[in-house]
Amino acid sequence: MRLAQWTMACVGVLFFTCAAYGQSDLKASPPAAPPPAKQPDAGSNGLINDLNLESPTLEDVLSALHRADPNFQAVVAREPGVAPDGPTLPALRLKNVTSDQVLRLLSNIRPISYEQIEGQGSPICLVRVQNPAREQGAGEAPMETRVYRLTEAMAGLNATDKPGTPADREAALNQVLSLIKATLAQVEDGSGVSPVVQVHAETRTLIVKGTADQLHAVEEALAAINPNRDVVARQKQLEDRDQQSKREALRIAQMEEQGASNNVEVRQLRDKLNSVEAQLGEMQKVAAEREAEIARLKAMAGQSGKGASQGGAKE
User: Would 123 be classed as within a structural domain?
Assistant: First the structure.
């Protein structure tokens, strides 16, 4: 009986010991960690042996290049209008490539450019993401700034210094400004550039910054309300004719100069031709003299042969 009780006690102690040991193992075991993300495999010769990215962003690609080569540093600069995570990139599955090859690939398939900035430390790669709309020329039209007098335009609205009150002049100034803005609103030059219009009331001048078409529209509007526009137009025609006359005079002078040059060349050719003709005459003269000399020698030879034959006959 005592043996049975002792056996049961040992079994109970063993059971509780195993249970406590199992619980301590369960509490000590940490949760299973997720598998690490696949890092790009970089070789010792500067090549990235394996680059596998599925629908990455530009930052994902640059981070992968940095993990493959810790000395690789990059800064991204996006033009206005580009999405913060743009542009979208295709999946990249590349082997045995360099970071420069990857960047060149991206610049060929997306509006991306890059340059290396050298220095004392590791070089920095500046990656620019361009806006395709700006590449097509939107907002790139050249702009100029011009200043116009408004005195004549205000005179066309019956608001000169005298007669007229300051209120009249201010009203006329506002009317001129309203006309200019309404005119510019109708200009469609495809540049996408908004003109800048400012009025300096003290000097009655208009300052406009815009494209050539916009400035031309402003000039047309001011001329339309200028009471002296006929005089101005006639003066402009005279200036245009004067410029045209000067251009024609310059062209004629150039033609005369060219003609003089041509005359010199003709004289030189004529002199050369005369020299050749003189040389030819001399050669013909010499040839004639030689022919005459040959004929004379032949005649003398013939007479000598005839005399010798007659002398032999007499003997």
Answer: yes
